[in-house]
Specification:
- Six copies of one chain form a homohexamer.
- The first copy, chain A, has seven helices and no strands.
- The first copy, chain A, has 129 residues and is an all-alpha fold.
- Chain A has two domains: 53 residues, Up-down Bundle (AhpD-like); 73 residues, AhpD-like, CATH 1.20.1290.
- In chain A, helix 4 runs antiparallel to helix 5 and helix 4 packs across helix 6.
- The longest helix of chain A has 24 residues.
- The first copy, chain A, is elongated, with a radius of gyration of 19 Å.
- Chains in contact: A-B, A-C, A-D, A-E, A-F, B-C, B-D, B-E, B-F, C-D, C-E, C-F, D-E, D-F, E-F.
C-alpha cells in the first residue's frame, strides 16, 4: 500500500479533492482518489471522466452504476466492486436488483465462453444492425 | 466452424428450438443455439437460464441486455457483443444509449486497472454496506 | 498477418521445425510455429516448454489438452481454441467430452464472477488444505 | 462482506442448503452458498447447475474439478481457486497433479497471448475438424 | 460493422478528425476514430486522453506504444494489437524488440496465473515499497 | 496458503534457490519461488525463463519490468503487481514513470473495450505492416 497524500497535498491535488467533495457533497475523498494523487495528471483526468460519464444522460445514473458493478465483478477488481456496489445502493439498488445484475453478468460470462469454445459465425442478421 | 444440426436434429434438440422460436416469436434460431446443439444438455440448460434470467424482474429487460453488452465487450466476445447489441436495439436502445453503455464499460475497465496498479485498501465505509 | 519464414528459414529455426515434425510425426508445422519464428528464442523456448509440459506425466495428455481448451476458451483465444480442440480430438476427445469440458469452463466463468460480486471470505477449511 | 443468512433462512433457502448437505454428505454449507442466499433464485439455479455439470459423465469428476481450478486461476478468482483446489484434492488430486494442472494453465495463458500478439491465421486443417 | 460517418460528419466530429490529422500529420483517420464518431462525446474524450497520455513524458512514446501492445495482446483485442503494433513500428520498434515485448507479456501472463493458482502471500519487503 | 519448503528442501529445489540468490545477489528467495517449489519442474522452468527473458536484450530490463507491471495490473494479479512494481523501482522507475505506465495501461484497457464494443474492421494499412 502506498502512502496517502494528506495535509501536505499539493494545490493541484487539493483542487481535485475539493471538487470531488463539493460535487458529491461529502467531507472526505475515498482511498481510490488518494492513490490517484500519486500521479496528479491521472487524478485530474480520471475525476473529470467519472464526473462526465457517470452523470445523468441517455441512461440514468443508477443504470450506469449497475453496469460498473457488472464489469468490475467480471474483471475481478475487488476495490471497484465494493465501491460501485456501495454507490449503486446509495442510488437505490435493492438486494434483488443486485441479485439480477450479478445473475446477468454471470450468465454473460458463461455464454461468452461457450461462444468462444464452439466458435459459431456471427449471424448475417446481426451484422446488418 | 462446426456443422449445424439441421433437419435431422434430435427430438430433444427440436423441442428446445421450438420453445426458443415460440418464446421469441421468430421462425429461426440463431447460430449460437445451433452450436449448443452439439451438446443437448448444455443447449437445454442455457436456454432455460437465458429465459429466466433475462425476463422482466426487478430490472427491465433492456437494462439487462445493456449489462450483457458491457460484459461481452469487456470479455472481447465478438459473437455475444453482436447478438446482444442487436437484442438491446430491438428492445429500444438508441445509438446514444449504446454510446453511454460503452463509455461506462470503458471507464470501468480503466479504473479497475488503476485500482489494481495502485493497490489501495477498501475503505471501511464500503466494507460495512 | 506476418510473412511466413519459409524455404529461407535460418538453421536455428529449421532445427526447431525439424524437431516439431519428428516429435509429432507430421510433415509440416502449423501457423503458430511459423509466427513464433519471427523471434527464434521464443520459438525454441515455447517448443521446449510445450514438449515438456504436454508430455505424459501425473496427468495424461488428453486431460492436459482439455485443460488447454478450457483456458483458451476462457481467454477468448480463437487460434488456440481451434488448435487445441483439434489436438484433443486427435487424442480421443469425443463430442460429448468436449460438451462437458465447455460446460465446466462456462460454469467456472459464471461462479468466478458471482464470487467476485458477492465477495465472501474464503472458508477456514479451504485455507488449511 | 455481506451478512450470512443463518437460523432465520427462508424455507426456500433452507431447502437448497439441505440438498447441498445431503448430496455432499456434509453438515454445513460453505460461504459461497451463504452469499448466494442473498438472491434465492441464483442460489437454487447455481446449485442445480453445479450438481448436474460436475456429476460423473463422459469425464470423471476429478478431471472436471481440475478444469475448474485451471479456469479459476486464469480468471484470478481467489475464492474459487481455494475451494476447487480443496475439492480436487478431496477427489484424489496429488501435489504433482496440481503442479501439472497449473503448468498447463500457465502455458496456455502464455501461448494465448503469443497467438494474440503475432496474429497468425487459423490453419485450414483446424477449421475442418 | 457500423456505418462510417463520412462527408456528412457533424462539425463536432469534423473538428476532432481535423485535430487528429493535424497532430499526426496524416490525411485520413483510421477506423477506430470513425467508429467512435457514433458517440461524439466519447470520440472527443478518447482523443484528448490519447493525445495527452501517449505524448512524451517521463517515458518516451515508443515505450508507451510497446506497453500498449503488451496490454492489447493480453486482452486479446485484435484491432488494438494491429494498430499499436503498427504505431510502435513507426516509432522504431524492430522485429527483435517486438519479440521481447511479447516474450515479456507472455511470461507475465504465465506467472500471473501461477501466482493465482499457488496463492502465496505478498512478501513484507514488497508491501513496504 | 501452502507450507513453505525450508531447511528440508530437496537438492533440486536448493540448486534453483542458490542460482536465484547468486544471480540476484540477495540472501533469500521471495514467496513466489517458495510456492513454485511445490512442483520442482515448474520452479526450474520458470526461473530459467525469467532469467532469460528479463535479461538485457533489444529492450533494457527496466522497460521489461514496466511491461510486466502493466500486464499484471491488467490481469489483476496482486502478488505480481507488488513484486514487479518493487523490481521496477529497484531498477530506477520513479513515481512519475509508474504514473505513466499505469495511465497507458488504463487507457489501453479502455480502448480495447471500445474497439470490442464498436467492432470496427482492421484498417488495410495495419494489415500490411
Amino acid at each position: 500500500m502506498r502512502k496517502e497524500p494528506g495535509e501536505d497535498a499539493s494545490p493541484e491535488v487539493r483542487a481535485v479533492y475539493d471538487d470531488i467533495m463539493v460535487t458529491r457533497q461529502v467531507d472526505r475523498v475515498n482511498n481510490f482518489w488518494k492513490a490517484m494523487a500519486h500521479h496528479p495528471p491521472t487524478l485530474r483526468q480520471v475525476w473529470e471522466e467519472v464526473k462526465t460519464v457517470m452523470a445523468p444522460g441517455a441512461l440514468d445514473p443508477l443504470v450506469k452504476e449497475m453496469i460498473y458493478v457488472a464489469v468490475s465483478a467480471t474483471n475481478g477488481c475487488e476495490y471497484c466492486t465494493y465501491s460501485h456496489t456501495a454507490a449503486a445502493r446509495a442510488k437505490g439498488m435493492t438486494e434483488e436488483m443486485l441479485g439480477e445484475v450479478l445473475a446477468v453478468a454471470a450468465l454473460a460470462n458463461k455464454t461468452n465462453r461457450l461462444a468462444n469454445g464452439y466458435r459459431m459465425p456471427v449471424d448475417d442478421a446481426f451484422l446488418n444492425t
